[in-house]
Amino acid sequence: MAGLTLERIAVGALKDIHLDVAPGEIVCLSGPSGSGKSRLLRAVSDLEPHGGTARLGGVEQGAVAGHRWRRSVMMVPAESAWWFDSVGEHLHKPMPEALEALGFSDETASWSVSRLSSGEKQRLALVRTLSREPRALLLDEPTANLDETTTRRLEDWLLPLIRKRRLPVLWVAHGGEQIRRLAGRHFRIEGARLVEEPVRT
Amino acid sequence: MNAIELSWWQLVLASSLVVALAACTHFARLGLGRSLLVAAARTAIQLALIGLVLEALFAVGSLHWVALMGIAMLLLSGREVVARQKYRLRGGWSFAIGTVSMFISAFSVTVLTLLAVIDPHPWYDPRYAIPLLGMLLGNTMTGVSLGLDRLTESARRSRDIIENRLMLGETWADACSDFRREAMRAGLMPIINSMAAAGIVSLPGMMTGQILAGSPPALAVKYQILVMFTIAAGTGFGTFAAVATCARRLFDDRERLRVDRLTAG
């Protein structure tokens, strides 16, 4: 599996961002709201015009079609959108183990998306993304709508999976506690730059 | 043709009905009187002018003048398409897309119908070419503007859905497929409805006009069927071309959704 590299990315207020994320490594990003965390993820996912480039292993962002890049480097937005009627239609393949690990059941696939709570949407958006077998993940506060217990449950499922599949992960997170649990490295956005913060004291 | 001659004073009589209606709405404080009168005056003036133009055109009958007339009609309908958009593409793209798709569909269907079906001599005889083109352009314009309006509106409203689908690695065409389908449906619904209701609920305007002008109903019906089919084809192809091109233009070469290319009309 390949690592994810950001080279001289410039988007919004952010300038000249360099970052290497190794396979299986989680790099946490934090910063005040409006500092450009989401836009940085969107730039890496190539969803908006930006300076610089990103690389997954030997493949450069601009060298393949947009959808091919995003088929490898998948972003999970803070607020997920749903377009089919049922949950199952959004999954590329049945994900019984993932659903069970997150406190759902086989029946969940037949649930109507209009009745999902924000917490359910957030967890199912992650399952939906992983059902398409990405090779790198960009997560925008994936536990923002979850309580403490559910958050821990999600981490217990996701972390081993990231390690097993050796996915490079950029994870936008808020809480210092969570960052200490997850991160290989942690960067705080300060103005136009990323400032590395110690993860464990 | 044995049309009963209609004199101008008889039209004045008909116009008094509109004036009476305007007076009623004025006294009922509906605030419609003024625009009703302006619209009625526009109808009279515009149609009188086009009557003069058509008389002259029919008298000359040369291909140049027919073509010039056709192009003028096309450009005006292109402007009309843009005027009906809530959001339009920046940089004249809406006008270009609307005009080109109407040109491709309405003009080719008109020429095809003239050459292969009606077969007048010469084939561009303005007596057939201009009314047919006018009817096709009018209807294609409605289809194109409804289709484009629906597409751009859903791109803005459903931006989250489209972008989330892109994030999951879908192509731009897949990510907006539902909205393209909706836009096509919106553009084609009027003609599908009027084909389905023709003769049962409504007597189409052209057929009514022909019968009033003295044509035998059987002939009027045949022409109406012809016109309905050509309108359906023209509207369908025109809307398809416009919606497909506009959808492509909503995404850039990296398949990103670019709602910043839209501006409030």
Please outline the helices and strands.
The complex is a heterodimer of chains A (201) and B (265).
Chain A: E1 4-11, E2 14-21, E3 26-30, H1 37-44, E4 51-56, E5 59-60, H2 66-72, E6 73-76, H3 96-101, H4 118-130, E7 136-140, H5 148-165, E8 169-172, H6 176-182, E9 185-190, E10 193-197
Parallel strand pairs in A: 3-8, 3-9, 6-7, 7-8
Antiparallel strand pairs in A: 1-2, 1-4, 4-5, 9-10
Chain B: H1 8-27, H2 33-60, H3 63-83, E1 87-89, H4 93-118, H5 126-157, H6 159-167, H7 172-175, H8 177-197, H9 205-212, H10 217-249, E2 262-264
Antiparallel strand pairs in B: 1-2
Helix pairs in contact in B: 1-2, 3-4, 3-5, 4-5, 4-10, 5-8, 5-10, 8-10, 9-10
Provide a descriptive summary of the structure in words.
Chain B: This is ABC transporter permease. Chain B: Keywords: Membrane, Transmembrane, Transmembrane helix. Chain B: It is a multi-pass membrane protein. The complex is a heterodimer of chains A (201) and B (265). Chain A has 201 residues and is α/β, with parallel strands linked by helices. Chain A has one domain: Rossmann fold. Chain A is built from 6 helices and 10 strands. In chain A, the strands form 2 sheets. In chain A, strands 6-7-8-3-9-10 form a 6-stranded mixed sheet, sandwiched between helices. In chain A, strand 1 and strand 2 form a beta hairpin. The longest helix of chain A has 18 residues. Chain B folds into 2 domains: 60 residues, no CATH class; 204 residues, no CATH class. Chain B starts with 7 loop residues before the first helix and ends with a strand. By secondary structure, chain B is an all-alpha fold. Chain B has 10 helices and 2 strands, in the order αααβαααααααβ. Helix content of chain B is 76%, strand content 2%. Chain B is globular and about 70 Å long. Chains A and B meet through helix 2 and strand 6 of A and helix 6 of B.
